[in-house]
Design a protein that fits this description.
Distance between the termini of chain B: 40 Å
Order of helices and strands of chain B: HHHHHHHH
Order of helices and strands of chain A: HHHHHHHHHHHH
Mean pLDDT of chain A: 70
Shape of chain A: rod-shaped
Radius of gyration of chain A: 43 Å
Number of domains of chain A: 2
Low-confidence stretches of chain A: 106-204
Helix content of chain A: 55-70%
Structural class of chain A: mainly alpha
CATH superfamily of the largest domain in chain B: RNA polymerase sigma factor, region 2, helix turn helix motif
Radius of gyration of chain B: 18 Å
Number of strands of chain A: 0
Number of domains of chain B: 2
Oligomer: heterodimer
CATH class of the largest domain in chain B: Mainly Alpha
Chain lengths: 299, 187
């Protein structure tokens, strides 16, 4: 077969044109210089540090790890933001709740409300609850409570250490249900008034976020015990216990909560202690801590 | 144009193949195959280097007795990869590459150089519209000067197949040239 490039001078114009086009590109000649040049490049490339593939794989692994770390960080930040929002929501709820309680307590203008401003005793009182009455007696009389003779004399609070020593220390809610005693309505308002008045604004109480009532009960009582025994903060313990009794007047740990509240206020806040003792005796006249309650009421 | 005999000897002797000998014997033919496969002249050296990097890596594992088709298959795959990469590269660079081999060498006048470049442009346009099988057979036969038997040996196909491809390729090529002539006549 005759090659088309040899038809350049053919009579047929198409064949001649095809020959002309094909002749415009000459066969690639052998080129020693080119061959050696490429060979030299190949040698240089062979001498280059090996591991471009490994480097590529390493880069991919690093990229994957970076993406994973970034995702984790973003997730963590989002979680933190969510938690902060939740905290803010709870704090707002708490403030509103306290405000509501405050309005309720100040509205009746009862004689107990008169002691509200005097109620905030120093929460950092170093004296534990089991301190001798002689030590607490001088500190307890606030301007409002001073006229009351019940708390001032030492004999009234003298038996407290012995009684407190027997108070429920591990006050986890008892499983045995409390007897269905009607809630005494009379002593309740003073406790609530005191709760609202004593709560310092900077001391955020545990969020009432627990949806399970049983866990909420246990949490409140456990926090109160911790505040009373370990943090030596009877004021906070009293608040928590008052809250417990307010929410769960017939809760499984109502008796223990009343006793603990009595312990937290005895020797510090005689009117409240008397209120708790009255409530305790009204509900549990023969209860485990009835002796303590009677002693708190005795002059 | 005859295919190199050295490598054939090497393969037939079943001796361990020496890369240097293979390279020296087959580098230039390989560039011709690459050109027939559609690689531009400006990229021939780079793609040829890629081909022989693969050959150097795989030569120890070569156990056949027909080195030519083996090399051609490597060249065809490398050319295919290069075309694919070039397509992606063109997306970013808009394909503005300078072919230094196409620049005027000074051995011919400006009019001749312009005429040659225009003819090459038309030729590339026609070849680009052909199927790869036809284009390879046609380019190797018409441009590089291979015989039908050499092309058959290279492509590992019967000689009749090569002639058939050449026949159809020539027919198609002449049709395109006739169209070009008609267009010229209308202008």
């Amino acid at each position: 077969m005759k090659r088309l490039r040899d038809e350049r001078g053919a009579a047929d114009p198409v064949l001649a044109e095809a020959g002309r086009l094909l002749s415009s590109r000459a066969p690639l000649p052998d080129d020693t210089a080119r061959r050696q040049r490429v060979r030299a490049r190949m040698r240089r490339r062979r001498g280059a540090p090996v591991g471009a593939g490994w480097l590529r794989a390493l880069a991919v692994v690093l990229l994957v790890f970076s993406v994973a770390a970034a995702s984790a960080m973003i997730g963590r930040v989002a979680q933190t933001i969510r938690a902060k929002l939740q905290e803010a929501r709870v704090a707002k709820h708490e403030r509103e709740r306290q405000r509501t309680h405050g309005h309720r307590s100040t509205a009746p203008a009862s004689p107990t409300s008169a002691i509200a401003p005097a109620a905030p005793t120093p929460p950092t009182a170093p004296a534990p609850v089991i301190a001798p009455a002689s030590a607490t007696a001088p500190a307890a009389p606030t301007p409002a409570t001073a006229p009351e003779p019940a708390t001032a004399p030492a004999p009234a609070t003298a038996p407290a250490p012995a009684i407190v020593a027997t108070a429920p220390i591990a006050s986890t809610p008892r499983i045995a249900p409390a007897p269905a005693v009607a809630r005494p309505t009379a002593p309740a308002p003073p406790a609530r008034v005191a709760t609202a008045a004593v709560t310092p604004p900077h001391r955020a109480l545990p969020a009432p976020a627990a949806t399970d009532p049983e866990s909420d009960q246990a949490r409140l009582v456990a926090d109160a015990v911790r505040a009373l025994r370990h943090q030596h903060d009877p004021a906070r313990a009293a608040i928590l216990l008052a809250r417990y009794l307010d929410r769960y007047p017939d809760g499984v740990a109502a008796e223990d909560a009343l006793a603990l509240a009595l312990e937290a206020t005895i020797g510090r806040d005689a009117p409240r202690a008397a209120g708790f003792a009255t409530r305790y005796l009204a509900r549990y006249p023969d209860g485990h801590w009835s002796a303590l309650a009677r002693r708190a009421l005795s002059p | 144009m005859d295919l190199p005999a050295a490598a054939g000897d090497v393969a037939s002797a079943r001796a361990p193949l020496d890369f240097s000998r293979v390279y020296e014997a087959w580098f230039d033919p390989c560039l011709r195959w690459l050109r027939a496969l559609g690689i531009p002249d400006a990229d021939l050296e780079d793609v040829g280097q890629e081909v022989f990097v693969v050959v150097r890596r795989k030569l120890a594992g070569f156990e056949g007795d027909r080195l030519t088709p083996w090399l051609y298959r490597i060249a065809a795959r490398t050319a295919s990869d290069h075309r694919r990469r070039a397509w992606f590269r063109r997306l970013w660079t808009r394909g503005s590459r300078i072919d230094f081999d196409a620049l005027s060498s000074g051995a011919e006048g400006p009019a001749e150089a312009l005429e040659r470049r225009e003819a090459q442009r038309l030729l590339d346009g026609i070849l680009a519209r052909m199927s790869e099988k036809r284009r390879v057979a046609f380019s190797l036969y018409e441009i590089e000067g291979y015989s039908g038997e050499e092309i058959a040996q290279l492509l590992a196909v019967p000689v009749a197949t090569v002639w058939t491809r050449l026949h159809h390729a020539r027919k198609e090529f002449l049709e395109r040239v006739a169209e070009l002539k008609d267009e010229e006549g209308r202008r």
